[in-house]
Design goal:
4 strands, alpha/beta, about 45% helix, about 100 residues
Amino acid sequence: MKTILLACSAGVSTTMLVRDMRVVAKNKGIACEIEAKDVGEAKRMLDHVDLLILSPQVRHEASIIHNLKPELPVYVMEMKDYGALNSEKILENALNLLED
């Protein structure tokens, strides 16, 4: 089972998105764990996740995280998908990264 972690500046705005992504994953029969944390907590969890998704407001953290754990795929959400809470599109992009 893959573990996907979403990170934003405070961990609050991604909570709704995670809830919706879990529903989408369940409806599609995709076995994965999806969590949301603030970016500071996310950095402490890098060894325990298969993919990190960053919200647009913390996109600058991508290079820092890459330096901390180069093998970890990091995906920065598009602002339009984040703003619209397009959980299906964000999950689809995440799963495509995990397949590569």
